[in-house]
Amino acid sequence: MEYCVPNHSLPARYQCKCPRLMKLNPDGRTCSDMNECESAIENACNNSETCINLVANSSSSMEKGYYCKCKEGFYYDPEQGQCADVDECVTECQFGAECTNTIGSYECRCRPGYEGDGNACSDINECLTHNCGGVGTCLNYPGWHYCECYPGYAFADGTCVDINECQLNEVLEKCPPPGKICSNVIGTFKCVCNYSTIDILNSDNNTLECEGEI
């Protein structure tokens, strides 16, 4: 389409000018749509938006020849007047998974105690591989397990471990010093005579009875 106006200063006495939002073609006589999306200078879309070109013609009344569309993972926030990141972690990840929101996307990973690809997670039955050290009963729960430990043992770090009863005040009362001391053994404890203490007491003719282990 030609859009030429007289110009007597030129040898040919005319020049061609294109309407707004259009550009002059190489032939110097016709005009075609200006694709603003081909140049970052011509459009104001940011990294969260996709530029959509609008085809202009001589009768176009558009203010600009393009518009910005929010990319996937973004939505238009009227308060900010621009596209904002969608927090997919509000709805996307399934039970047993934890979500990490990223700009324009998200990532689902199975939580500890679960296995899968993050989109589908299933419980790991730890009791199939954990025997609680052989001194307890394993109980499996969604995402974790617990050991009901035998007397003298306590649940720690996923298994049953020996309790050092000699660190408990109620046990120390059963082995009162200086004549007796507490000796920890696996799963229980013993009170034994402190012979070095008894020797000292005997030297002062103050004998402390100690009947050995109790």
SSE class: mainly beta
Helix percentage:
under 10%
How many domains, in number, for the residues? 4
The shape, in one word, is rod-shaped
- Quaternary organization: single chain
Radius of gyration: 42 Å
Mean residue pLDDT: 81
* Secondary-structure element order, N to C: EEEEEEEEEEEEEEEEHEEH
**Number of helical regions:** 2
Uncertain spans: 198-208
Keywords summarizing the entry:
6% helix, two-stranded antiparallel sheet, 4 domains, 18 strands, 214 residues, Laminin
Topology of helices and strands:
Blueprint: E1 4-6, E2 14-16, E3 22-24, E4 31-33, E5 49-53, E6 66-70, E7 74-77, E8 82-85, E9 97-102, E10 105-110, E11 114-116, E12 121-123, E13 136-141, E14 144-149, E15 153-156, E16 159-162, H1 169-172, E17 180-185, E18 188-193, H2 195-203
What would you say about this model in short?
The protein is mainly beta and 214 residues long. Helix content is 6%, strand content 37%.
What does this structure look like?
With 214 residues, this protein is mostly beta strands. Helix content is 6%, strand content 37%. It has helices at residues 169-172, 195-203, and strands at 4-6, 14-16, 22-24, 31-33, 49-53, 66-70, 74-77, 82-85, 97-102, 105-110, 114-116, 121-123, 136-141, 144-149, 153-156, 159-162, 180-185, 188-193. The protein has a two-stranded antiparallel ribbon. It has a two-stranded antiparallel ribbon with strand order 3-4. Strands 5-6 form a two-stranded antiparallel ribbon. The longest helix is centred in the C-terminal third of the chain and has 9 residues, at 195-203. The model is unreliable at 198-208 (pLDDT under 50).
